[in-house]
Amino acid sequence: MLKVHIQSGSYIPNQSTIQHIHFQLQQGELLVMIGSNGAGKSTTLKAIMGQLPFLEGEVVFQKNIRYSFIPERPVFYDELTLQEHLQFIADIEELPEAEWKPRAKMWLEKFQLMKVIHELPGTFSKGMQQKAMLLLALLTKPSLWIIDEPFMGLDPSAVKLFMKLIEEERKRGAGILMCTHVLDTAEKIGDRFVIIAEGTVSAQGTLEEVLSQHGATDLYGCIPEAE
Amino acid sequence: MKGLLLTRIRKDYNYQYGILKTAIDWTVIVYFILPVLFFTGLFYRSLWIEPPDWFNWFDWRLAALVIALSVLSSRWRTFLYEADSVFLIKRRNQVELILKKSFIYNLVFSFMETGIVIVLLLPFLINFLSVSWLSVFALWIAAASLRVSGKALFYFSWLRFKGWALQAVVIVIGIVLFIGAFPFVWLSFYVPFAAMLPLIILMAILPVLLKNSLLSANRILDHGLKEREYKTRLIKKMFSMSYEVETPPKAKTRSKPWLFGYSQKIFKNAGPKQALAELFIKHYARDREFTYHIMRFFGASGASGFFVPTGWGYLIIVSFLAFGTVMVLGQMWAQLIDQHAIGGKYKARDAYFKVRRIFNLIVIVPYLIFAVIYFI
């Protein structure tokens, strides 16, 4: 579904921020990428999304795959309402109206966003923006999810809803690549883990494998402590 | 709080200078800025020594046009931060003092800005129009006063009105200032004192008229929001020029768009091309800053109709404008698609290239018509 082979990547030429990052994501798998602040997780995601200016290596998506990216900080069009964002995604992805409208309505109600559908998402609260980003991603029924820090700003009920959604998506066969700092949750839901430290992969595999590679008892033990 | 405004002004300039430094290294200075400054200096000197033939294409209206445009491009600064609201209750007097001092800053700065414009116009005014130094002085006072009034009135409108009303008021003020500049410039040349007096009076009573808005500490959050917008203005411009960088979101005060408020569709049919076209039209039609720039562009183009040169000069200007418009259009598309987190994944789609081509054709048609009219 997704093969990542990064030799090096950076924002400035010849000053690599990430190097030797290799992993794969299979269908129906939840791959969790963890690491301390500044370890290179978001840079890796940027490299995967083709947004890193200097990259040596390759990122291979399965042919014609439909993917959705949810960045850490929600981003919208400044002048488009939530309804217009939905319409834009649906039209450009050529989704049949009979398919996307009921789905959008259901998630709008679940996320309690129906009352702000004609408002500009840029003015929403942080949690509402996060929900709106999720909603846009859900609309296309992606086969691959790439999510950066999904729990930030979500209220407890939305976190619960999001976890349920992830589980459903996995059952449907979608692959999920997720970056998070919420390690307790990551331990529970992740199939495999990639630990990033100082811009490179320090360990990867199932929970047992990464713990034994680091000689740790939980994921907290795999992250270098702040000095 | 003593000298706080000055510290903030200095910080603001350092911040903007820091942004410029990220883009301008010594190679840009040596190979671009210094040569441009040198040749511009030589060119300006030559205007003094021997007035060029092309001065004959123009008359006093060129000076009026330049002044009218300079009056429109203005920003009212308060140098208050949103975080200052935390101190409002305990230190209201100081906040009010900053606002009062910022009025003086706006006044002084407007005179300096206008002074630069007039210095650039001087060879034309003195060597070609043969106006007296008293008239030049009158022009400076009149233009600077109009500029202060413009700044204050635009800012006042932003504080007082929202949505359609704001659009309408800004357009009316823009038109009145733009057209109003012409008689004042004419008067400064021929009846200097008559041009100065009404504007000096207007400038004197303006702060009193606008006391509850421009100088109001109660609007501290609005002042802070506008300042944040100004502070990030240059950095946003630089981001928008780079295809590699995502466009940062704007600070917003309204939750609903002023146009198509209920998300009405423009195109009946649904499809990738319509989606992209609709995104482009709605995004830019609703963007006040953009519509304001477009209005200035059309205003300047319309007014320059007075001075259109004949012969190849006409065709060169039309071609240059057409090329510039297509370049700007490309940049506008890049902001929405290539540089955007949502649109980025569609940047290689056929529909995107097709829609861009269609838009390029649409904007080139008026220029082609102008060119054909010329040949007929």
UniProtKB/TrEMBL annotation, chain A:
One MF annotation (Gene Ontology) recorded for this entry: ATP binding
PROSITE patterns membership: ABC_TRANSPORTER_1, ABC_TRANSPORTER_2
Matches recorded under SUPFAM superfamilies: P-loop containing nucleoside triphosphate hydrolases (SSF52540)
Assigned keywords, A-Z: ATP-binding, Nucleotide-binding, Transport
CDD domains: ABC_DR_subfamily_A
Source organism, top-level taxon: Bacteria
Annotated ranges, domain ABC transporter: 2-223
Name under which the protein is recorded: ABC transporter ATP-binding protein
From TrEMBL, chain B:
Signal peptide positions on this chain: none
Transmembrane intervals: 28-48, 60-82, 103-126, 132-156, 163-184, 190-210, 290-308, 314-337, 358-375
Keyword Membrane among record annotations: yes
Record keywords: Membrane, Transmembrane, Transmembrane helix
InterPro entries registered for this protein in UniProt: EcsB_ABC
Name recorded for this polypeptide: ABC transporter permease
Organism: Jeotgalibacillus terrae
